[in-house]
Amino acid sequence: MTTIATASAPADPSALVTTLAQAARRAQRQLAALSSDARAAALVRAADALRAAAPAVLAANARDLAAGEARGLSGAMLDRLMLDEARLSAIADAVAAVAALPDPVGQVIDTAARPNGLALSRVRVPIGVIGIIYESRPNVTADAATLCVRAGNAAVLRGGSEAVHSNTAIHAALAEGLVAGGVPAEAVQLVPSQDRACVGAMLTASGLIDMIVPRGGKSLVARVQADARVPVLAHLDGINHTYVHHAAEPAMAERIAVNAKLRRTGICGAMETLLIDSAYPAAPALVAALIDAGCEVRGDGRAAALDRRVIAASDEDWDTEYLDAVLSVAVVDGLEDALAHIARHSSGHTDAIVTADAETAERFLAEVDSAIVMHNASSQFADGGEFGLGAEIGIATGRLHARGPVALEGLTTYKWQVRGAGQTRP
Amino acid sequence: MTTIATASAPADPSALVTTLAQAARRAQRQLAALSSDARAAALVRAADALRAAAPAVLAANARDLAAGEARGLSGAMLDRLMLDEARLSAIADAVAAVAALPDPVGQVIDTAARPNGLALSRVRVPIGVIGIIYESRPNVTADAATLCVRAGNAAVLRGGSEAVHSNTAIHAALAEGLVAGGVPAEAVQLVPSQDRACVGAMLTASGLIDMIVPRGGKSLVARVQADARVPVLAHLDGINHTYVHHAAEPAMAERIAVNAKLRRTGICGAMETLLIDSAYPAAPALVAALIDAGCEVRGDGRAAALDRRVIAASDEDWDTEYLDAVLSVAVVDGLEDALAHIARHSSGHTDAIVTADAETAERFLAEVDSAIVMHNASSQFADGGEFGLGAEIGIATGRLHARGPVALEGLTTYKWQVRGAGQTRP
Fold first, then answer.
1. What is the pLDDT of residues B364-377, one digit of tens each?
2. What is this structure's pTM?
3. To which pathway does this protein belong (chains A, B) (predicted)?
4. CA-CA 20 to 30 A from B195: which of B149, B253, B312, B385?
């Protein structure tokens, strides 16, 4: 905390970020030298400190909420910002839960013995310094920092201005707990300036910050992806398809489609386009069930013929992530046609098939090139917790490093350890 | 080949690269649908076609060599460019060897069964379209294309202008063999223009090219790293350290140091800095052995005292990759001092310790944060072939995706396959 206080608000955002990241790098080396148990114990202390700091955090949050109301933030924005006893308790519980997750650091990925006697092993190690750029949800301060520390990484956090008091209070509590547990305070740093140039400085901090994780809406992620010179772990869009094959069991198809679209419409795993096979016998009932459940359906010509309440889809609908109770529906002629539609319009997040035909399902799982492909399941399962990862730093739709839900393993890299007995290369 | 011929030399490099990459993307989908055996068989045909095309390739190479001599290329440059029967045969053998490597595509990384019955598996899949930007060595045309195709990727190749005829002839032969084996010609494309703006277009082809691999000298790699908006797999420097601990066995230390520096001075795994423990008893003999073997030694004050032939090192020497029979030597006070020197000056490629003390060795292997860390072995072993990977597309010193020698596995990513029985998310 002292470092942050002394480093606060210099004139030059680039110098500020450099100072923070260099301190984070030094702290990361100390953090990596701690045992896994010591890192876990420090995180348990951080969770306790967060619970103990509830009055201060809630008071800080009240200041943010008042400022947000004065600035005219929407109800949805204010809800994202709002903390209460229950939410704060859930945040602290999540910190403790991450502390209890198995540590990927030190895991041996594989080993090899060479004919010359050299023994090779690939061992997981922390990535280093992770930059997190996020918007109004103050829980990200705790969630992201905790995942980073569990995997031996330092975190440089840059939250949104609307949550500045909440983030500062949460960060102070976490840091207090971590320091009491032997983790250097500089291992988790909150950028103490709301100057937007700090974000730009983080995005271009090659060699200082090893990876950037943006957490927030599409415009934030798009800006980060466009401007970053540091590797980014992110998804931009979740334009997710569910293909109801002609051999789908109708009750299952209806249940999955309604859940995939409507359980929560605002999450990135929500279905945005339904593809109905032209040979599927229960298509009118499927569309009716979605509309009856409160969904607006925008269809192509053949989908419009299924129910008179279907609205005509425009070309843009096939590339739109509604994040709302709106769905585009196309009728396709068999698997090939479905695969072609998905190849053209999917954002590579999560695409699913519903069918009782195992061979068709396996072809879909093999040929659809998305981070997550599903058979007979709701795309809303696209989530680190649901996948058993214990948490997630995000869902990646890029192709390198980590794909789909990313938790602790995605916050590590590896090194090669080579053990010899004096070998020289001929 | 037809595509490339018809696409040759349009006015706009960006449009050219877009056209090539889009064709590569389509071809990659067809390539990925082939079986592993079919891809391997096509590569064997490509190797055969390359052997059959030897007269044409050598004639093309002679044109490049004549042009290079006329342009006054150095002897080293001309040697890198030169092909003869033996070199071409070795290139074809390498293509066939990659064909025989185990295919990473389809490998199941791990599986999980969730309490709700969902069955998860992570399966390796090709990355997609790989851009290779390289300089004068025409073997890269075959090596890189072959590794990409083995792992189901399309390749967009951009070789140096000095090797344009050689590259064109090698590419034509490869493409002929691949097409005969059922691989679409557009899966391996050679950018048909030497306009330097094509390199810039490749580096910024987000969404069209999934990863760029630069192969060449430091200035090429630096430009690629500075300008790329596409992920890059590369190493910039191999500033590799060997630390001779006080408990090193002197004969082994001498043998390893001489090999690590002098076996081949121009490779990225060569030692550039030797750290000698101040308590190591045989330090003068170690330095003398290196100088006697033909190495120029630049030392700090204490190293200079070990042999009167040592030249005083400047500050820059500790951050210099000589790639020559030149070595910087520092005397350090124990492991901590060595670790601090390495943390400050290593480029994160390969660092080694020589010691008979197992505990010190393990601390070194754990705490040095480089892609490759070695105990009692020459850093010249830092090589995909020596590591048993069968080949390498490069050595990565970045921290994400793949690190150290990268071969087929590093040319893949993974997807999550989820198999359900109608599950919806509560």
1. 999 999 999 999 99
2. 0.93
3. Amino-acid biosynthesis; L-proline biosynthesis; L-glutamate 5-semialdehyde from L-glutamate: step 2/2
4. B149
